[in-house]
Design brief:
- About 20% of the residues lie in helices and about 25% in strands.
- By secondary structure, the protein is α+β, with helices and mostly antiparallel strands.
- Strand 2 and strand 3 form a beta hairpin.
- The C terminus is likely disordered.
- The chain folds into two domains: about 100 residues, 2-Layer Sandwich (Alpha-Beta Plaits); about 130 residues, Alpha-Beta Plaits (2-Layer Sandwich).
- Strands 1, 2, 3, 4, 5, 6, 7, 8, 9 and 10 form a ten-stranded mixed β-sheet that branches.
Length: about 270
């Protein structure tokens, strides 16, 4: 039941999507987006005009193996598992609906998140079956140099040099909790977790570190790039298709229910 002071029930929805078929998360006129697709499906199912709010916005071609959004209903849903199942039937393989749970009315998919994690995949050579999900890169890269550069971005820094220009953010300061590269055989995988991310930040960081891996930059030059606070000082942005949002975390007290499996369920690996 809703309290007299609350005119709606808020829900979190956990999902995943293949970004290849969409022009990003956020609604744009005349092109398919994830947000528009889910809005339409939820409106059809609930009979209410639903405007879903995402934990962030991914660009065209970027994927999410774990994404969280919220929506409100004036008539509470009596069976969220059933709603989740019906919602999933609206989509082909491009979107997967994992779970819908009740949350407190002031819990916000974007602003209540405590951290987000991204993975970036670089494929060694040709990857005929996984090309839409990685950056194919033939020359070998120096992982030691790339990890030295990644270590420098851990902590609280101004990431203006790695941000898309002319955004509406109030600050370009982010706190990075972890960042590093791993050799996974056919892939080099970059993992980064932070309190927030700027637009294009991960792709710009990856592109710059790859320049280091090719021997064109070193860790001292990485420091200079960060201090410059100038996008033109950094490297080119890595291609969108290698980037995955893989985890979004929230305070446990945000939820009205106590799921048998914590939310999110597991550390997602791209």
């Amino acid at each position: 039941m809703l309290s007299q002071s609350t005119a709606f029930q808020r829900y979190f929805i956990e999902l995943a999507y293949n970004g290849s078929e969409f022009h990003g998360w956020q609604i744009q006129p005349g092109v398919p987006t994830v947000q528009e697709s889910i809005n339409h499906a939820l409106t059809c199912l609930t009979g209410e005009v639903v405007n879903i709010v995402g934990c962030g916005r991914t660009d065209t071609g970027v994927h999410a193996s774990h994404f969280v959004a919220h929506f409100d209903l004036t008539t509470p849903c009596s069976d969220t598992d059933k709603l989740c199942l019906k919602l999933g039937r609206f989509f082909r393989g491009s979107i997967r609906i994992d779970r819908i749970v009740k949350v407190l009315p002031d819990c916000h998919a974007r602003f209540s998140a405590t951290s987000r994690t991204y993975h970036y995949l670089i494929g060694r050579g040709r990857q005929p079956f996984l090309a839409p999900f990685c950056w194919e890169h033939s020359p070998e890269l120096d992982l030691l140099v790339m990890n030295q550069m990644a270590e420098l971005i851990i902590g609280q820094h101004d990431f203006t040099s790695f941000s898309k220009l002319h955004t509406d953010t109030k600050t370009n300061i982010c706190e990075v909790y972890e960042a590093g590269w791993k050799d996974e055989g056919k892939f080099l995988v970059f993992r980064i977790r932070a309190d927030r991310f700027l637009r294009n930040m991960v792709r710009a960081l990856v592109g710059t570190m790859v320049e280091g891996g090719k021997g064109h930059l070193n860790s001292q030059e990485m420091i200079q790039i960060m201090e410059a606070k100038n996008r033109s000082a950094a490297g080119m942005s890595a291609p969108a298709q290698g980037l995955f949002l893989t985890r979004v975390d929230y305070p446990p007290e945000s939820f009205l229910v106590n799921p048998t499996v914590p939310f999110p369920e597991l550390i997602r690996k791209a």
